[in-house]
## 1
Amino acid sequence: MSGVFGMNIKMSIYGESHGKAIGVVLDGLPPGLKLDEEAIAKEMARRAPGQSALTTARKEKDAVEIQSGFFEGYTTGTPLCARIVNGDQHSKDYSILKDKMRPGHGDYAGYVRYQGFNDYRGGGHFSARLTAPLVFAGAVAKQALAQYGIVIGAHIASVYDVQERSFNPMGESDATLQGLNAKAFPVLEDAVGAKMQERILQAKGELNSVGGVIELMATHVPAGIGAPYFDSLESRLSHVLFSVPAVKGIEFGDGFGFAALTGAEANDQLHYENGAVRGYTNHNGGITGGISNGMPLVFRVAMKPTPSISREQKTVSLSKHADTTLTIVGRHDPCIVQRAVPVIEAVTAWTLWDLILEAKKWEK
Amino acid sequence: MSGVFGMNIKMSIYGESHGKAIGVVLDGLPPGLKLDEEAIAKEMARRAPGQSALTTARKEKDAVEIQSGFFEGYTTGTPLCARIVNGDQHSKDYSILKDKMRPGHGDYAGYVRYQGFNDYRGGGHFSARLTAPLVFAGAVAKQALAQYGIVIGAHIASVYDVQERSFNPMGESDATLQGLNAKAFPVLEDAVGAKMQERILQAKGELNSVGGVIELMATHVPAGIGAPYFDSLESRLSHVLFSVPAVKGIEFGDGFGFAALTGAEANDQLHYENGAVRGYTNHNGGITGGISNGMPLVFRVAMKPTPSISREQKTVSLSKHADTTLTIVGRHDPCIVQRAVPVIEAVTAWTLWDLILEAKKWEK
Amino acid sequence: MSGVFGMNIKMSIYGESHGKAIGVVLDGLPPGLKLDEEAIAKEMARRAPGQSALTTARKEKDAVEIQSGFFEGYTTGTPLCARIVNGDQHSKDYSILKDKMRPGHGDYAGYVRYQGFNDYRGGGHFSARLTAPLVFAGAVAKQALAQYGIVIGAHIASVYDVQERSFNPMGESDATLQGLNAKAFPVLEDAVGAKMQERILQAKGELNSVGGVIELMATHVPAGIGAPYFDSLESRLSHVLFSVPAVKGIEFGDGFGFAALTGAEANDQLHYENGAVRGYTNHNGGITGGISNGMPLVFRVAMKPTPSISREQKTVSLSKHADTTLTIVGRHDPCIVQRAVPVIEAVTAWTLWDLILEAKKWEK
Amino acid sequence: MSGVFGMNIKMSIYGESHGKAIGVVLDGLPPGLKLDEEAIAKEMARRAPGQSALTTARKEKDAVEIQSGFFEGYTTGTPLCARIVNGDQHSKDYSILKDKMRPGHGDYAGYVRYQGFNDYRGGGHFSARLTAPLVFAGAVAKQALAQYGIVIGAHIASVYDVQERSFNPMGESDATLQGLNAKAFPVLEDAVGAKMQERILQAKGELNSVGGVIELMATHVPAGIGAPYFDSLESRLSHVLFSVPAVKGIEFGDGFGFAALTGAEANDQLHYENGAVRGYTNHNGGITGGISNGMPLVFRVAMKPTPSISREQKTVSLSKHADTTLTIVGRHDPCIVQRAVPVIEAVTAWTLWDLILEAKKWEK
C-alpha cells in the first residue's frame, strides 16, 4: 500500500506513465475553498516536460480534468478527483524493460515487490509522471495556505558542482519567494543559474545526467504546527518529500551542518520582536521539538542524477538469468532538479495545510 | 496527535519525563514470538543514562514492566504494553521552565501548540526520555528480524570535528555490525572513538555540547520491501527517524553526495552474484524506487548538539512578556549521539519489521 | 473526511450524481490477480437502474473504465482507478433542491456539514449512485475471495409486510447462494418474490415507497478472521454496511432475537465434524469474540423506504427561512432493496478480503 | 490489529483479564480539558462488578491510575495513559480453558486467530474486563461533550421477555437522561426494572443467563456531525458499538421497524421551530445522510445472554481432538446488560467527540 497520504486531508494517487490516465482523489478538503483554475494550470505547467532543451522532449500537456468535489467554483467538501489523460506515449520504446532492469531505477526492486506484474512501460507507477497529481494537490493547498498568508518559495541551490547562495535563514521577502515561483529556472542569482543550465546541457551532450539540491523556504508559518515524536513537522515533511522520486537526502535548518557546531553556537537564542517570540538565529529552520516556532521554515533536499542515461550500462536479463548490457533509448531529462522544484513545493504545501487543519481541532 | 506510529504494527507511546511512568503499547504484534527479556534489558541499558562521565548524571534504571500481551514467554498477538516507572526526579530543578523558554528546545513551540498546558518539567513529553519506549519497541522488532537473518548495526560516524571511516556500502560483516551493538561507545575505529570522547568531555568542561552523525547499516534485508511514493522505505524510515529528538538531517546511500555525481557515476549497475541480482556499487544505500533492492541498507542521520547547556543564554519570559536570560541548571548530556545510537537502530528495526509484514500480505 | 475505507486494501471513492464522473481508487490490491472484466460488468449491471418497472427510469450504463493498476489482464499491485462517466442527467429537475430540503434525505444535515457548498443536484455525493464504485470494488474482491472458495449470496428477506424464509444458519448450498446472484430479484422463494414485486408496484402506483430487509450469507469463510474489540468482524462489516445509503439496522446471527433467548439456548455448543470444530447451532452467525469461527457468516440489514416520493411533503425553505412544501419530481425507485443486494454483497466481500489479508501477516 | 480506535482522538487499549494490568492510551486529547476525577471514578463504579446479587461476585475496584498526559488538573494534549491494576484473580479456575473451548465465547475463534498463544485465563484480552478502559475513555469524553451541552442517557429497554417503554424519539428531558446515569439499574419505569431484576435472578438460580436490549439517547447533538459513506455517524458508532463484547445487533431510529413503514410514513417531514430546522417526527434517530440533523440521536443495541453459564455444555477438547463436555466453574454475570449500559454510553461519547473534533477542522 502506498498511494494514500495525509491525516486530515488525504490524497490518493493513481496511474502509470503509459496507462490511460493518472490522477488523484483529494479527500477531506474543506468546503467553500474558491479554486483559481488558472493558477492551478500554471503550477502544472511549471512541472510539465517539453518546455526547453533542458528537459525531455516528451510533450505532456498535463491538462487537469476535475471530476468531482468542485461545484460552481468552490470545493464542495466531498472528494475531489483530478484526472490527467496520458498522451504522446511511445510505448514501443519500453518493451525491452520488461526483461532488462535499468540501473539506478526501481525496476528490479519493483519487479520483486510486484512479483513481475507491474507495468514496466516508462517505469509505470514508479514514473516521475506521477508527480503531476502531487503538483495538482499542492496547487490546491497553496490556495488554502494563502488565506493564512503563508508564502512558499524554492530555488535550485546547486546543480552538480555549480552552487548559488543559500536562503537567508532569517527570512527572504515575499517578493523574492514569489519571484522564484515565476521563473522557469528558479534561482536567486541568474548568472549562477546560467552556469547550472550550461552544466545540464553539457551532461545532455555527454549522454549523461546530473543531480542537485533544492532549498525551500516557507514564511509566515504560524508557531504551533506539528508535534513532538511521530507527527513532528520534520517527520511529516520528510515522509512525503522522500516520496518524490530521486530525493535521497533531507536536512532541516543547518541539518548536517549542525554536527560541526557546539550547542552554544547552534542554539537559537530568543527575544521579543514586535510582540512575537523570535530567534536571534534560525539554525533550526523554523522547527523545534517537531513544531513550527514562528521562524521561517527552511530545508534542503538532495536529488540524485536522473538514472535514465543513454549510455550502455551493465545490467541483468531476468528472462535469461544472465548478465547483459542495456542502452536506454527514448527521451529523458538530463537533470530532474528544475522540474522537481514545484513538486517539492507542492508536497510541502499539502503537508503544512494538513497540520494547520490538525491544529484547528484544538482551537477554542 | 502524534503518539501512534506504524501500519501493520502500531506503537503508541505515552509519558513525560517527570510523570509517574512512561511506556508504549505495541499493537499488531504477531502471536508466538518468543521474547528474550534479557536481550531487551541489554538494549534498554545501552540507551539508559548515568553510565559514564560522557552522559548525564541522572540515573534511570529503565526497568521495563510488561503489562499485557506476553504470556508464558511468547507474545500473544494482543496489545503488549511495556511500562517504565520514572525515578530519580529532581522536579524542583525545572520550575523556572514554565516561564523561561530554553533556546534550541521545543519549549516555546510546545507552549503554543499545547496552549500552555503541557508538562514543562524536564521537557515533559518532549523529553528524550521518551526514546526509552522506542528502544523497547525496537528490541522486540530486532528479535523478530533475527528470524529473517537481518542484522542491524550503527556507529558514530562523527562527533563535532572528529570523524571516522564510513561503512563500506557494499556491506560489513555480521561480526562487525554485531560488535558495534556490544560497544558502550560504538565506533569502527577505537582510536578515533577515544578522540570523540575527549571532544565530548572538553565540551562538558566548557559547559557546552556537541552533536554528530550516526551511520546505520542493515544487511540481509530482502529485496522487495517498501513501495514507490508514500510508503517508500525512505519515507517510512525518515518519518520515524525525524521523530527522534535532535535529528535534523537524513541521507540514504550517497545522499547529499549524489549532487556531486553524474548519472553515469551514480547508477548502481547490476549483475548476478550467486544467483542474486546485485549492484556493482551501492550509491543508493540499498533502496531504489522506494523499495529495498537486496543491497545493504545504509543511511546517515545528523544530530544537533544537546540544546541543554549550562551557560547563560538569552531568552524570553512569557509571564513578563520581556527579554531575559536563563542559565539551565541540572544534569545534561554534553553529547546525545552515543545514547541515540540504539534509538536509531530501534526505530529502524520497527519500521523494517512493519514493512516486512506489509509484504507478507502479498505472499502466495 | 469520509471517502476512504479499508486497512490493507483501501478504497477511495469520489463523485456526485450529476458531476462529470464517479469512481474509486483501490489501493493495496495484491499484484497478479486476474480480473474477469465480464464478471465485473455483470455485477455492475445488477445494481444499475432502468432495468424494470420496479426501478427508476433513469438509465445509467455504468460502464467502468479502468484507468490504472491493471495491465495485461492482471492487477499490478499499484492503485487501480475505476471511473464511470455520468450520463442521462436531467440536472434541471433538481435546482429547487438547493433551497428546499427533501424529508428523509441527508439534504439538511449535509447543508450544515458542507456549509452550503455541496452539490445539491440529485443528492450530489450523498446519492446512492455512489454505490456503483462500491459494487466495482466488491466485484474485484469477489474474484479474490473465490481463490479461497468463499461464496457470498444474499436475498431479499422482506419487502414491507411480505417476507420469505430466512437462510438456514447452518449453511446453504453453493448452488443456492450462487443462484441468488443470478436472479434479477434475488429471493429464495419465487412465489414470495412475486408478491414482493407486487407490493413495490403498488407503492409506486401510490406515489409511495417501501423498504425491507436483506439477509446475507457467506460460506467457507475460514475460522480466524477478525479480532476482538475494534477490528471485530462485526465492527468492520457494520462500519461499511452503514455506509450504504438507507441502511438503518444490522444484526449478526440471531441479532435482536438473542434478547429472547437464555444462555443455555443461545450458546452454540461445539463438536468435531470431519475433523473441524463446528457448532451444533449457529446463533452467532459465524462470529464469536469478533472473529470468524468457521460457521457460515449470516447477517441481516434493514433498509428504510426510499425517501424520494412524489407526494407533497412538508419541509423548509432555507432561503426564506420558512416552512413550505415540496413535491419531488423526477424518477425514483419505489424500493431500493433489490438494487441494494449487490451493494451489500460488495462491501461484505471487500471487508472479508481486507481481513483475510490482515490474517496473512501472521502466517508462518 | 485491533486495539486502536478513533480518528482525531485515538484510544489504544491493552490488557488481559488475568494479566498484571489493563489500560488505555488516549492520544490527541485537546490540551486544557479540566478533568473531574471523582466523576470518572463514578463512571468506573457503574461498570465495576461485585455490587449486587445481579452481577458476578468478583470484586474489582477498577481504580484508575493516570500515568501521563494530565498535569495540574488539566489534560496536557500529550498522550494520556490510564492504568488499572488487576486484582482478585483466581487464575487456577481457568486452566482447563486452554484445552476446552467455551461455547458462545471467542475461545475457539481466538485460538485459531492467535495460533494458540493468547492468554486463555478468563478470556484474556477478549474479556469484557477490557471494557473498563473504554468506560474511562468515555468518562473523559463525556466531560468534553458537556462543554457543548450534549447529554447522553441510556436505559435497559428489555431483559429477556421483560420490556419497558422506549424513549420518546422526539426527545427526553435532561433530567430524565441524567437520572438514568445515576441509577444502579437504569430503567425509565422502576416497576418494570424490578421485574427485569427478578428475571435475572431467576436465570442465575437456574445456572442460566439472559440478554437484552439497551437504548441510548443523546440530546443537543449539533447538526452537521458525521459524513456520507465511510464516516457516517452510523458507521463510526456501529464500529465501536460492535466492539463491545456480546453486542449482536444495532438499529438507529426505527431501525428494523423501517421495513414495515412506507416512505410517506417514514420520512421525517421538516419545519422550523424556534429558528431551527426540526422534524415533525424522528424515525431516523437524528441521523440522515450519515450526518446528525439536530434531532435527538437514538439507537438500540441487542446484547446476547452471557455465554458463561454453569451448566454442562457440549464442546471440544483441542488436545484430544475429540468431543467432550465442559462445566464452567467460577463467578459469572447472569446478565451483562446493566453493566454494559455505561460502556455503550462511553463508546458513544468517545465517537461523538471524535466527530465533533472532525467538524472543527472546517470551522471558519
Note: The mean pLDDT of chain A is 94.
## 2
Amino acid sequence: MFILPQKDSGTPTTSPGSVSTQGLHSNHGDGLEREGSGKPDQKPLKLYGVGDPTAMFSSDSPYLSSRGSIIKWFWDSAEEGYRTYHMDEYEDENPSGIINLGTSENKLCFDLLSRRVSPGAPLGGIPSCKGLSSLGFLGTLAPESLLLASASVRSSALLSPVCPQLSQSDMLRVEPSLLQYPDWRGHLFLREEVARFLSFYCRSPAPLKPENVVVLNGCASLFSALATVLCEVGEAFLIPAPYYGAITQHVYLYGNVRLVCVYLDSEVTGLETRPFQLTVEKLEMALEGANSEGVKVKGLILINPQNPLGDVYSPGELQEYLKFAKRHELHVMVDEVYMLSVFEESVGYHSVLSLERLPDPQRTHVMWATSKDFGMSGLRFGTLYTENQDVATAVSSLCRYHGLSGLVQYQMAQLLRDRDWINQVYLPENHARLKAAHTYVSEELRALGIPFVSRGAGFFIWVDLRKYLPAATFEEEKLLWRRFLDNKVLLSFGQAFECKEPGWFRLVFSDKTHRLRLGMQRVRRVLEGKSQEPRGPHR
Amino acid sequence: MFILPQKDSGTPTTSPGSVSTQGLHSNHGDGLEREGSGKPDQKPLKLYGVGDPTAMFSSDSPYLSSRGSIIKWFWDSAEEGYRTYHMDEYEDENPSGIINLGTSENKLCFDLLSRRVSPGAPLGGIPSCKGLSSLGFLGTLAPESLLLASASVRSSALLSPVCPQLSQSDMLRVEPSLLQYPDWRGHLFLREEVARFLSFYCRSPAPLKPENVVVLNGCASLFSALATVLCEVGEAFLIPAPYYGAITQHVYLYGNVRLVCVYLDSEVTGLETRPFQLTVEKLEMALEGANSEGVKVKGLILINPQNPLGDVYSPGELQEYLKFAKRHELHVMVDEVYMLSVFEESVGYHSVLSLERLPDPQRTHVMWATSKDFGMSGLRFGTLYTENQDVATAVSSLCRYHGLSGLVQYQMAQLLRDRDWINQVYLPENHARLKAAHTYVSEELRALGIPFVSRGAGFFIWVDLRKYLPAATFEEEKLLWRRFLDNKVLLSFGQAFECKEPGWFRLVFSDKTHRLRLGMQRVRRVLEGKSQEPRGPHR
C-alpha cells in the first residue's frame, strides 16, 4: 500500500512538474509511465467535461416522446458490439464464435455458486467439473488436488446447519410472507443480514444498522434512484474518468442527471504516484469548471475498486476526497461492487465504511451488490447503505420500481450468512482463480510488450494500445476495436469509459482458461497482423 | 354478460336523464341505483379532473432535490394505514391485531403455490393444511373431501414430467446463463413461454410472438416505463375513476406524467346498464376538458377486470374505447392483471388480445403479471405485450432498472408452462375459494343492508357506506376509515381511488375464513355501533 504525502486538506495540491513513481506497483504494472512520457504528441488535455448524453442522438419515433426516443437510442447504439456477440457467441459447439473479453463478469466460479445454491441439482447441465478441470494455470496445484481441497473444505461446511448437501436445497423456501407485497426497503431479515455482512467485510468500526440498508435489484437501479432523489433535472454528479460508462445512462435515462468528468490521464506528474491518479486538485478544477458553465453539481461518484483502472483508494485518499465533498456540500456515492474482488493480497483494500469517522455521514452513500463479488450479475441484487434517513426513505419509495422477488431475498440472506462457505470455500477459491487468470493475461501482455494498468483488483486490465493506432484519434480506436471483433474477440474501447486518450482498452480476464487462451491468441493475431501489414480498405 | 346498445362510435351518446337497470347483475349486486337515486344531496359532479399528485405535498428535506422530497412524501403519506397495520398485524399469536381487508392480495392459495414451487419442502412453516382446513364456507364440500379432491387432481399432475413431487424441486436451476447479465427484455425462453401462455389464456386469434413480449419486475415498473417513453414531462394519460390509486405514483414519480380522471358515478343514467359505467361520451368529455386546460393527453389507461369495481368490459365496449383512442391517436395501456381471477362463470371475460382486430395495434399495449392471478405480489413478475417495436425497445432499455433475477425467470417459465397444474389444480381451486369467500362477504353485506358493486372478478367488493357518513364529505369518509382501523380492521377508502362520491370503500375478500370472519365482525361492530351511538370527540 502506498502512502500519500500528508497535506492540509483545505489547500489543494498545486505542484505540477515533478514526476514521482514512488509506490507504483510495477509488479502488477506495466512500464506505463515510461510509455506515457515517451509519447511525443502529448497535448494538454481538458481537465473536465460536462457530459451531454444525447450529443450523438439521431433517431426518432412517431410513437415515442422525445425522451422515449433517446431511451430507445441508448439501447440501439450501446448494444452494437453485444448484438454482434450474441449472434455468434463462442461455445464448445461454435469454436469460431466470438470470445467476450468485454463484459465485466466473473465466469470463474459458476461451479461453486451452483453447488451452493442448488446442492442437490444434477451436475449435467452445470459446468462444475469442467470449471475445476480447466484451471490449468493454478500454480502448482493440479486440478484433482484442487477438487479435493475444495471438497474437503466443503464438507466441513456441511456441519453448519445452513448447508444440507444432497438434500432439499436451503435456497428454496416459499413462505407466504415472501409471496406477498414486500417492505419496499427489502425484507427485514435480509436487511439485517446485509448489515451484518457489510459490518464484517467492510470492517466497520461499529456494527452497521439494518435501518440504514435499502435493498433493490442492482446498482444500476440505485444510481437511477439516487440521481433522481438528490438532483433536479439537469444537475450533475462529478465522476473521475475513465469510469464504467453505463453510469451515464443510469443517472440520465430516468433522472435526467448529467455527469461532469474529472479527466485523469496516464502521465504521472507532480506528487502523483501512479497513472490516472485522482487528486483533490483535479476534483476542485472540475467542480470550478462546471460551476463556471452554470452546471450545478450535487455529488461525487467514487468507484472503489475502480472500474476500469482496477485501482483502489487508500484511507488517506478516501478522506481527502470526502473532505473535498464536505467542503462543497456534495453527496458522495461510493460504488464498492468490487470490494471482495481484490485478489492481490498485497493490496490493502479499505471500504469507506471502515473509516473511523466519515467527514459528512449524512451525505455519504455506499453501494454494494452481488453482481461482481459473487459473480451473479443475473441475480439482480444490490444494496444501499446510508445514515441519511431522508435519502433512504426517498430511495425506498422508488423501490416500488426496483423490487426483487421475496424468493431471491431469501436466497440472498441464506448466501450472505453462510460465512463458512464464503470464507473457506468461495473467497479463497475465487481469489486464487482470479489471480491465476490475471497472471496469465498480464504475462501474455508483457510478452507482447504492451503496457497496462492493473493493481490486483477487479476483473479487468486497462491496456494501453496507443502505439497500435496510426493516429491518436477515437476513430482509429474504434477501427482497432472493430478489427478485434472481426477477429472474433470482443473488447471494450476507452472512449466508452470517457477516457480522453485514444487507444486504451479494457480487457476482462475473469474467464475460463480455454476461452481466455483463445481470446488472447486472437488479440495477439490482430496486434501482430497490424504491425506486419497495413490496414486495407476494411469497413 | 350484458350487451351494450350498438351506436355509431363517431357520435358520443348524449341522452342524460333516463334511468336504466337493464342487465344490472343484481345477483352479485346491490340495489345500488336505488341508494344512489334516493340520495337527496345529489350534486352535478365535475366530469373530469386533471390530477396534481403534489397538491397535498408539504414536507421538505435539505438533502433531497424537490422531486426527491415529493418522492419521499409519497412514501410517508401513502403508508399511513399500512404502517399502523404492520406494527400490529393480526396473527394467531396476536388475535387482537389488525385484519387487513385493504391490500388487494389473494391469500387463499399459498398452500397450492408453495407445494408447486417447492414440492419437497417441509410443510411446517407453510400453512398448507391450515389453508385447506379453514375453508369452512366451501359450499357442500367438507374440508376433508376438498383435501382429497385436491390431492387426487394433484397426483394426476404428477404424471407430467414438469412436477416431480418429493424430489428436488424443478424450480431451482442454476445455469451460468441465469447468473450472467440477462437480455434486458427477459430471457428468450421466458418470453416464448409468456407468448404461449397469453395466446392460450387470452384466447388470441393468432399465436402471440415472443418478440412482442418484454418481461420485468411487475406492472408498477411497466407503468413507470411506459409513461416515460410515451409522454413528455407534464403530459397525461386518461383514466376512468375510481381506479387503483397507486397508478398516480407509478406514472409520476419517475415519469412526471399526470392522470386525467374520467369520473364515473354510481347513478345509472341514459343508456347505461350499470353503476360507474364507462362510456365513450365520458371519455370524449374528459379529453376535451383536459385539452381546454392545455393538458396534452397521450394515452388512455384501461383496467380490465377493473380495480376497484370488479367490472369487466364486453368486447363491444372494448372496441368502442379503442376506437375512441384511435380517433385521437392515443396509446391504450390495458392492465389485465386480474384476467384469470374472474371467478363467476357467468361473467364472460374477454382480453383485449382476444379481439379479432385491434383498431390501432401500434398504440395498444397490454400488461399482465403474476401478482394477482397467481397470488404472488412478492414475486415481482410482470410483462408487456405490444406489437410496437419502438415501444418494446424503449421499455427494454429502461428494463436495466426493472430487471428480475434469472432464477426467478426460470421459475416463472416453469410455472407458466405447467398447464396441467394451472388448469386442473390451481385455477379451479382458486376460483372456488374466491367464489366462496366472495359469497360469504356479500351475504354479510346484504344482511347489513349495505349496497355494493361487484361482478364476480377480482379480490374486492366496492362497498357503498354513504349512508353511514353524517355528511357527504371526504373528511367524514376518512373518519369512518379511522374508526375501522381503531377497531382493528383495515379497509381502503374511496378517495384513494379518486372516487368523487364520498363514502365508498374497497373491501378485499380474498383471505382465509378465520380472518375474514373476524374482519367482517369488526366491520359490523363499527357500522352498528355507529348507528347506535353518536361519534364522540374521537381523534
Note: Chain B touches chain A through 88 residues (CB under 8 Å).
